[in-house]
Putative Fis family transcriptional regulator
Amino acid sequence: MTMHHLAPEQSSEPIFLADAEFRRAREISAGLIAESADELDRIFLSVGKAGCCLLLTDADGVALERRGAATDDQDFRQLGLWSGAVWSEASVGTNGIGTALADERCVTIYRDQHFFSSNINLCCTTAPIRDHLGHVTGALDISTCRDDVNDLTFSMLTQAVRDAAQRIEGNLFRRAFPGARILMLPSGHSATLSLLAVDQDDIILGATRAARQALRLDDAHLAAGIPASDALREERHDKGAELADAERAALRRVLSRADGNVTKAASLLGISRATLHRKMKKLAVH
């Protein structure tokens, strides 16, 4: 209240960006919008007819995209659940979107938990969305002003939002590393997405926030080019065997592409059939 100089009872008409500002916000978050579209559509098919509204926001709480039934448009527009509206804590106090962004965690805000009295009919559940660097880049929110929403129903909506946000994060991560091999790390927590992007030489190009925490990686490690096998602590009995292992793996890949035909594999490698046979014998490739 003191920090943002807001009062619960003050007039709180929704705040909307000017058209030019809104277009600029969408341009900046074009990747987020593109990678979220399918998830917004999918969730809306499940909850749209139940009086729910979906909002995708940027890191400043600006609603970039929305999904809602046409019959509910007037109510949601008046409440500010509309494209271009600003839902930061600095603008409207405690609310699902602003609080999730500020705290960088999933939150659920029931009716009178909202700061402004004009929002006390709303129930909101929101999950932050992180980019490929682990930074919060936006949020996904489901809101409803229906009186008959019970705890069970809303817990299901909360899980749907979290799952969708996680899938969007995966989309953003893959988008950031288009040519990389994506590895999923085992995780005991279903709410986290532990992914590594690895190049053809086994060097880690990127890691999600959960993967960074699990493997104790930071920007310095990634900039230095740490091998995935080192980060994953894959123990080797013979440290000097790495070159032989790499050569063996290369031969196996070529033989696979040649369907096991040694003559064809030798041609692909640009060496003689006899040379390939010697290498295969030396490296125990059968």
